[in-house]
Amino acid sequence: MTKHAAYPSEDMVAAVAAPAPAGRHFTSFQPLKSASLDCKKHASGAAVVGGSWFESMKASSPRCAADAEHGDDWMEKHPSALASFESLLAAAKGKQIVMFLDYDGTLSPIVEDPDRAIMSEEMREAVRRVAEHFPTAIVSGRCRDKVFNFVKLTELYYAGSHGMDIQGPANHLQATAEVVHFQAGSEFLPVIEEVFGTLTAKMEAIAGTKVEHNKYCLSVHFRCVREEEWNAVNEEVRSVLKDYPNLKLTHGRKVLEIRPSIKWDKGKALEFLLKSLGYAGRNDVFPIYIGDDRTDEDAFKVLRNMGQGIGILVSKLPKETAASYSLSDPAEVKEFLRKLAKSKGDAPTMKMMT
Ligand SMILES: [Mg+2]
Known about the structure:
Keywords: Hydrolase. The protein has 354 residues and is an alpha/beta fold. Helices cover 39% and strands 15% of the residues. The relative contact order is 0.19.
């Protein structure tokens, strides 16, 4: 395991002695009041509801208007993490950066077949280099084994099934992860299996759907379904779930997700990992979470409430978000990761910045 020194390590003592005011680097980038309220509503994992679902799905799917550009007002509130790179590093000065990365739409492109959401070798190299310097975790809705098979880097932490299934690089989280399994409710596993069978059979009637088994949760992808049939997908899934009140339905980018109704999400996974790494309650840690979807809002919200670190939304379009910064696509994520890893060699320059 590579050592994970603070950034830059020699500033740690000063940072502990005189910590930055909580939320200092957020003050210039407060979201719109209405955006905050909506994020709260969605981040709670609210069930997908009737007619609003269709419009909400269209609004959260950048591919519907892939050529649209960020509005100036939105970019002012969620500036590019690349354009703001130097000030972002200044905010992290003397603190331990911990990197959290979503997978689909963040490290890999959103593709029609979710089994083909392959990350590029260049992206893998960028993640590997970041992990050489900072603890790095992949936090995904997919099952842990599946996302590991995509990323293939043994030095990372992996939080699969929206954080319900966590494992560390040296297996030292393994014992604690068993607690997480317990919290996630392994009693749900047979129910998830049963619903997977029912949904797989039902979805055969709607061309283009794909039901993915993610151990603790299920994903019904409809990236390849005609827009006129999106509501049919939603209604079929909802009709199946009527018999399972202990499961809840949420949605992401052209995907419906079925999960146990327990209080566990990507935000909880972030908190759990920070605690496992020994950073709970410390003000010398600077978590960076990069994600593109609604489920990532739980993590953005945790960071905003902590007043530490930053959330970075990956989106080509303005979206309601609790993230402070933005990147437009996985290519920009790759560039950001490269710059972050490279900055470790630029510590003397950084020391002159503040
Ligand atoms: Mg994603």
